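Need residues for this backbone.
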């Protein structure tokens, strides 16, 4: 056997050994998680929240442990910019496969609300200073990305205490994007409130943009009634019944013309 053949055999053996070691040392399987943030409308000029950390909790672990950090960079979000389908990528992280039960947001100093062009600091109650915990069961599968929407309800979360003081008690809904869909449309007149109703319960709502466009997101697959309420009270409200939402799809209602009272 030539010297070059012998060398090739040695290299092949080394590669095979290293490949075998690499496979044997992999003890866990991984998927990934992406978390998006969106908001419902609120009667403020801006709602700025500062988040320093996002983590998730694995099932069957002690409540004080079992947390995995999926984002640890401090960022500021104006919630009122995240509506009508606009979302901010909150976290994008590889995660060990398994069953998880909670998401925790650490909201830090610097949060504020702007009302009539005046900025007011948002007080965070002491009970939330260890983090805002959101109960949501989900499973991370190997080589699969789980996408989650956190729907922050600014209007319900901000409490006016008087004397220019405001407090935030976060109200957040968690929805798996793969199991939800949306409803959109364009309305004339252009300034309206749009509601997705399940029976008499409001599941989602939004305010149209300046062109009359609205989008209701985070809706589980089902049939809904869509109620349109114009800001101009000379127009009559209208309700569209049996609007079907399919998971992973948007139901486009087209142009909706409201009639004069």
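Answer:
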């Amino acid at each position: 056997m030539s010297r070059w053949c012998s060398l090739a055999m040695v290299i092949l053996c080394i590669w095979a050994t290293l490949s075998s070691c690499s496979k044997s040392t992999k003890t866990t399987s991984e998927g990934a998680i992406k978390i998006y943030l969106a908001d419902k409308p609120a009667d403020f000029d801006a709602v700025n929240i500062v988040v320093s950390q996002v983590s998730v909790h694995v099932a069957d672990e002690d409540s004080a442990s079992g947390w995995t950090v999926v984002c640890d960079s401090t960022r500021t979000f104006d919630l009122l910019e995240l509506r009508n389908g606009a979302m901010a990528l909150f976290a994008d992280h590889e995660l060990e496969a398994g069953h998880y039960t909670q998401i925790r947001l650490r909201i830090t100093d610097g949060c504020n609300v702007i009302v009539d062009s005046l900025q007011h600091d948002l007080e965070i109650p002491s009970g939330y200073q260890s983090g805002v915990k959101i109960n949501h069961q989900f499973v991370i599968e190997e080589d699969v990305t789980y996408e989650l929407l956190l729907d922050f309800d600014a209007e319900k979360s901000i409490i006016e205490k008087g004397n220019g003081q405001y407090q935030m008690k976060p109200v957040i809904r968690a929805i798996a994007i793969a199991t939800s869909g949306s409803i959109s449309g364009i309305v004339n007149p252009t300034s309206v409130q749009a509601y997705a109703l399940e029976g008499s319960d409001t599941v989602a709502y939004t305010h149209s943009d300046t062109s009359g466009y609205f989008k209701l997101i985070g809706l589980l697959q089902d049939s809904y009634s869509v109620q349109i309420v114009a800001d101009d009270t000379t127009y009559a409200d209208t309700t569209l019944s049996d609007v079907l939402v399919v998971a992973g799809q948007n139901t486009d209602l087209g142009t909706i013309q409201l009639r004069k009272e």
